[in-house]
Q: What sequence folds into this?
């Protein structure tokens, strides 16, 4: 046993019973049968208490300006309306910033800062009545010039917080002395989460002025805190609960709070239960997205394509408020190296405050933009030098004696080279490279491209204090187990994995473990289910809780059956005491009669991590997750249309707790990333209105966009750090496997251009962006 | 009007349910979720684009059985479900046993968050009940779920689940003789009128009744599939008090397949008209395959696509290039208009109050006509076109005698490219060097606009590229070398 302050006598990698029965098997998602039969309940499905009111939002008609007139009389007198609520009705604070920035009002008060910002709410007897009434308001906004782009914000010096840079060496000097040098601007688009279940909350007033909130959030403790702040209550007067979300992807981390806060406010004002479920268009207009960024890059390299220096400045569009942007953009800087050692490197970030919706967490949390930028630079350098991009990437990977990141953390677990080589072999990269060259030589209209890109993604919240989790486990007298922890289920299979771990701790069947809704009343002060950390943290906390009960049962059995703890095993729903077998439920019943406690909390915090942001040095990550993907695409040079033909992935999940669930995360993450880089385009008009605010105009991938050949391999390995049973986090890293799609499109276009012409391919590579790049390189031909 | 019924009848779980107290704009989804509390069916977008609300509607098929179509309940008006069996995800399991589609979804790990899952189950239920004598392949499953968005799984396990479940013979207890009996009981075949003169949902059963009712209420909203009108209700919150549904008028859903022409009733759905239209040309089949989704095509109509006058409807350019005519009716009067003349200006058609599109007629292309059509959008499936191009060239011995070219997305209306047509006259297909004047002429034909789908510059460039592509293909190039989707060599009739 390893033993540590974090896990006590438990060995994180080894099961005490000596045998894993549930863990490592592809058991189904705990709710699978309920999902397919419509029996899984989401916030809007739960039976409403009698008298529940429905809420609609009155939104700002302009992107910026003082509120000079707010006439709500027609709203108040509309049929079915019970209450109209404005900022003036807030008993506590009109402030919901998740980081205490003081720039995130629940309702706009004196001024509006983006088009669609909530200004008031209507509570009515039906949802239709509320929505109709909300349209009757007259909101007059004074003239003001909104800042809608990062360039405009830069010119106005409009920032949410100071610049933050991670720098190693002397990139400026190294760029000057490098044998070759290139530079460019690379626009990177944002992304709408498009969780299928929109934001929703149901607030039910309790006695003493307390509030119960059913919410669709990745962060119930934050919802609890915000509701308390808004209502002027201590935190213990609010309970927030979530059984499951219909998708989250980061969009329900901080940004579920506003809707729960508004529902609670309306419930306080009316004294009646109030439900707020955003219409899809409102959801897309009023909630933040992945940050769009502009990357200004400079790179210096030798004739073999070894990078000597890279200096990349990211201008990130944060929107009107701070929200989680600082942590998000820090992660962009942390991931600008991706899997490469660059001796002299600067990742500079500028956090632009704009009059747009406040951008927020989204799977990858800033990392994807950093990694996409350096991969784009790799593609440009490879094209300039006529080196196969795969060879160029291999040369620049971290390796022996080049294994320290720009922020001073050793890449102690580097498997990027072997994962890349395995991807090269499994995809048949070299042979296909030749076939594609032949295809392109013969085809005037349709061109193919091929690329392999690596992923190295740091696992842990970079806000170190968040790397903690709690769990609560009860065993009842029939041997059934009640499992609760601070993690939330958004489809990723967290609840299933944690239950597998707990079942194996007791040596019982998985179906004996009841999975229950996350609630702030059972486990307090929880961290968001984010940063891919859900299983690492919560499975360990739950295992610790279960182990405590098991240890008590072990001691009891040893005493009762005159044995010693070392001879007692929990397996197959039984407890083996030497040669004797006692049913688990029997032992539990005996223990109860003997007044043994059958309930325990568990608490876990990630060891070893530390981060000094001032110095830009530390070990912010417990470990790295790796992967690589090979994508083949075909583009139509007359229309810019794109087809992704084949994808091969090798991805590292350590030793998987549940291979089917992990593969589901990899496939789903890849396709979501592919959408970000191809068809998903956010368009704002000159007035700051989002024009792509519904699935009719914002296009996430459909089934036919998935490559016809799509091969996913789990890398065979174990986490070198002591994560739960040697597994690795899998939520976010696979999204960035999709960068190979962008690089393959680059490759297809690069063949049209001589080396001297850089390839101006933006992200997302929509048909229009592809055709623009094709046209530009053709017109640039000498 | 002789209203003979004042309630709709639907079949739910084998029983006929009568509903008379509903607003003309009440949606099927609200009925299910708010009244029945059948909460398995989800609202994802309320505009018919995500498919989370998909239910199956069963009606008597052409043969003996029941035909099941997937429908977006969020924009399907309750009154339109009159006479149909409504199946939701909760109805699928029988005696505690999951339906084969559900069971296969579970076994393939095809759900993650589960919110889209009921919609997928129902879309696949409709696929499961469709005859596929040669079995199904991946692309057919993709087509069947093109109207269902999933943000978690990446679709691969869903497709695998569908292929697995549909490989077995249909055996699920749906579409039995009892169902047919119940449907016969529910379908009264008489004119429906629910409400009063100020606020009603009406469904006449003859064109004469429709014409009379519409003259009486020229401000009523005519609804065929409600795939557009549904959004007026759910998104724009328009006050719509009088609704006249066309779907129950047999004369208007009829398809007349003559030796040299087609006459299609304005209320015939895409699914109804699929076979006839697809036979005109493989490219028409391909545009229809990508138009909307199975849910949209199950209820949406070509007539509605024509009548609402959108500059980005996909079918008007196809039909204009083929020289289609439309029949307009007012009371007892009928006028025939070349389809291109129907479109006057953005949002304005040559249609008088009380007048409606009754049908349209299209000539079948002759042996000397080469037809090509292309749909350009950000995403291949279920996306509104940035540009839709249709080319009909009359060719004699490699020389273009005449051309009809129509574009969508290039102007405020679906519009012909008359300068380009003229420039193509007498041009040789064998000499690409002579094509450029026609390509250049498109710049005189169109001044497209910038919007969130595409920039004006992109639209203009693509229009030229598509003309070049059409000429290259007609000159003999294999479309495997010219297209990413919808190759003509592989043109099978797809799925509706």
A:
């Amino acid at each position: 046993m390893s033993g540590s302050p974090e896990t006590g006598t438990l060995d994180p990698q080894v099961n005490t019973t000596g045998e894993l029965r549930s863990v490592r098997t592809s058991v189904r998602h705990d709710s699978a049968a309920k999902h397919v039969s419509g029996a899984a309940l989401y916030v809007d499905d739960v039976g409403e208490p009698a008298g529940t009111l429905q809420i609609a939002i009155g939104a700002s008609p302009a992107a910026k300006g003082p509120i000079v007139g707010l006439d709500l009389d027609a709203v108040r007198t509309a049929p079915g309306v019970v209450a109209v609520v404005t900022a003036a009705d807030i008993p506590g604070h009109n402030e919901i910033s998740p980081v205490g920035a003081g720039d995130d009002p629940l309702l706009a008060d004196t001024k509006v800062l983006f088009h669609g910002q909530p200004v008031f709410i209507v509570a009515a007897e039906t949802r239709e009545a509320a929505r109709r009434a909300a349209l009757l308001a007259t909101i007059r906004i004074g003239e003001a010039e909104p800042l809608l782009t990062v360039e405009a914000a830069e010119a106005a010096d409009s920032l949410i917080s100071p610049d933050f840079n991670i720098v190693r060496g002397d990139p400026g000097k190294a760029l000057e002395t490098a044998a070759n040098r290139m530079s460019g601007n690379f626009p990177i688009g944002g992304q709408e989460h498009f969780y299928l279940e929109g934001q929703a909350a149901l607030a039910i007033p309790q006695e003493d002025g307390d509030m119960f909130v059913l919410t669709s959030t990745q962060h119930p403790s934050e919802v609890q805190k915000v509701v308390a702040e808004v209502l002027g209550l201590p935190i213990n007067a609010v309970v927030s609960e979530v059984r499951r979300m219909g998708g989250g992807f980061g969009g329900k981390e901080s940004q579920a709070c506003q809707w729960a806060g508004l529902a609670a406010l309306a419930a306080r004002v009316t004294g009646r239960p109030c439900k707020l479920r955003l219409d899809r268009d409102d959801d897309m207009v009023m909630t933040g997205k992945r940050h769009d960024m502009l990357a200004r890059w400079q790179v210096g390299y030798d004739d073999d394509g070894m990078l000597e220096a890279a200096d990349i400045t990211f201008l990130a569009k944060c929107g009107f408020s701070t929200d989680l942007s600082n942590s998000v953009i820090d992660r962009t800087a942390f991931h600008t190296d991706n899997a490469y050692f660059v001796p002299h490197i600067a990742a500079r970030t500028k956090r632009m405050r704009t009059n747009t919706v406040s951008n927020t967490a989204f799977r990858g949390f800033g990392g994807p933009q950093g990694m996409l930028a350096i991969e784009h630079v790799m593609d440009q350098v490879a094209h300039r030098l006529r080196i196969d991009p795969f060879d160029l990437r291999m040369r620049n990977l971290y390796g022996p004696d080049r294994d320290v990141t720009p922020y001073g953390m050793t890449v102690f677990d580097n498997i990027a080279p072997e994962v890349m080589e395995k991807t090269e072999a499994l995809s048949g990269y070299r042979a296909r490279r030749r076939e594609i060259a032949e295809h392109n030589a013969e085809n005037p209209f349709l061109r193919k491209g091929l690329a392999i890109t690596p992923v190295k993604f740091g696992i842990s919240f970079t806000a170190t204090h968040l790397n903690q989790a709690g769990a609560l486990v009860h065993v009842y007298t029939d041997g059934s187990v009640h499992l609760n922890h601070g993690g939330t289920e958004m489809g990723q299979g967290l609840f299933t994995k944690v239950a597998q771990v707990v079942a194996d701790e007791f040596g019982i069947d998985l179906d004996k473990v009841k999975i229950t809704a996350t609630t702030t009343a059972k486990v307090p002060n929880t961290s968001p289910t984010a940063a891919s950390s859900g299983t690492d943290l919560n499975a360990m906390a739950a295992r610790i809780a279960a182990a405590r009960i098991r240890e008590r049962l072990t001691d009891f059995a040893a005493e009762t059956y005159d044995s010693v703890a070392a001879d007692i095993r929990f397996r197959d729903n039984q407890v083996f005491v030497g040669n004797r077998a006692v049913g688990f439920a029997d032992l539990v019943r005996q223990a109860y009669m003997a007044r043994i406690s059958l309930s325990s909390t568990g608490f876990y915090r990630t060891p070893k991590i530390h981060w000094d942001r001032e110095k830009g040095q530390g070990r912010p990550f417990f470990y790295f997750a790796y992967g690589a993907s090979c994508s083949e695409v075909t583009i139509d040079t007359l229309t810019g249309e794109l087809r992704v033909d084949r994808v091969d992935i090798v991805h590292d999940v350590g030793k998987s707790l549940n291979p089917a669930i992990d593969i589901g995360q990899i496939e789903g993450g890849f396709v979501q990333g592919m959408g970000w880089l191809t068809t998903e385009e956010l368009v704002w008009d000159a007035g700051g209105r989002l024009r792509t605010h519904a699935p009719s105009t914002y296009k996430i991938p459909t089934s036919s966009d998935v490559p016809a050949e799509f091969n996913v391999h789990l890398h065979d390995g174990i986490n070198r750090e002591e994560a739960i049973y040697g597994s690795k986090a899998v939520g976010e890293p696979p999204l960035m496997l999709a960068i190979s799609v962008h690089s393959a499109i680059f490759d297809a276009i690069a063949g049209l251009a001589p080396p001297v012409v850089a390839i101006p391919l933006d992200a997302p590579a929509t048909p229009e962006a592809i055709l623009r790049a094709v046209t530009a390189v053709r017109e640039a031909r000498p | 009007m002789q209203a003979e019924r004042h309630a709709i009848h639907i079949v739910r779980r084998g029983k006929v349910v009568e509903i008379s107290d509903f607003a003309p704009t009440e949606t099927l989804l609200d009925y299910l979720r708010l009244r029945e509390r059948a909460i398995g069916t989800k609202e994802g977008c309320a505009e018919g684009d995500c498919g989370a609300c998909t239910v199956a509607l069963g009606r008597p098929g052409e043969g003996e059985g029941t035909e099941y179509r997937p429908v977006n309940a969020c924009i399907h008006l309750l009154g339109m479900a009159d006479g149909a069996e409504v199946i939701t995800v909760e109805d699928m399991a029988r005696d505690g046993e999951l339906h084969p589609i559900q069971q296969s979804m579970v076994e393939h790990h095809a759900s993650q968050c589960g919110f889209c899952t009921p919609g997928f189950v129902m879309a696949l239920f409709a696929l499961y009940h469709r005859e596929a004598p040669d079995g199904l392949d991946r692309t057919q499953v993709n087509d069947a779920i093109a109207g269902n968005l999933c943000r978690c799984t990446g679709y691969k396990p869903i497709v695998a689940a569908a292929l697995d479940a549909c490989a077995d013979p249909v055996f699920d207890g749906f579409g039995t003789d009892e169902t047919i009996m119940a449907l016969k009981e529910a379908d009264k075949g008489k004119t429906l009128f629910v409400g009063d003169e100020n606020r009603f949902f009406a469904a006449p059963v003859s064109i004469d009744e429709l014409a009379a009712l519409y003259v009486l209420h020229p401000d009523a909203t005519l609804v065929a599939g409600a795939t557009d009108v549904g959004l007026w209700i759910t998104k724009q919150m328009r006050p719509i008090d009088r609704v006249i549904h066309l779907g129950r008028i047999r004369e208007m859903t009829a398809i007349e397949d003559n030796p040299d022409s087609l006459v299609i009733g304005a209320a015939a759905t895409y699914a109804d008209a699929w076979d006839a239209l697809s036979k005109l040309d493989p490219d028409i089949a391909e545009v229809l395959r990508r138009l909307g989704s199975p849910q949209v095509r199950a209820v949406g109509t070509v007539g509605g696509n024509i009548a609402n006058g959108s500059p980005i409807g996909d079918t008007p350019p196809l039909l204009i290039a083929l020289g289609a005519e439309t029949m307009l009716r007012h009371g007892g009067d009928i006028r025939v208009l070349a389809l291109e003349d129907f479109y006057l200006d953005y949002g304005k058609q040559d249609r008088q109050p009380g007048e409606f599109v009754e049908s349209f007629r299209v000539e079948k292309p002759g042996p000397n006509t080469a037809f090509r059509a292309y749909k350009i959008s950000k995403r291949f499936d279920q996306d509104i076109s940035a540009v839709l191009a249709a080319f009909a060239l009359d060719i004699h011995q490699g020389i273009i005698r005449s051309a009809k070219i129509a574009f969508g997305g290039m102007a405020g209306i679906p519009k012909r490219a008359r300068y380009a047509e003229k420039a193509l006259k007498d041009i040789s297909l064998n000499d690409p060097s002579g094509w450029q004047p026609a390509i250049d002429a498109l710049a005189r034909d169109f001044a497209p606009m910038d919007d969130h789908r595409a920039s004006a510059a992109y639209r203009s460039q693509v229009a030229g590229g598509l003309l070049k592509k059409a000429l290259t293909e007609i000159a003999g190039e294999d479309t495997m070398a010219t297209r990413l989707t919808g190759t003509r060599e592989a043109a099978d009739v797809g799925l509706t």
Remarks:
- The two ends of chain B are 36 Å apart (CA to CA).
- DSSP finds 18 helices and 20 strands in chain B.
- The longest strand of chain B covers residues 387-396.
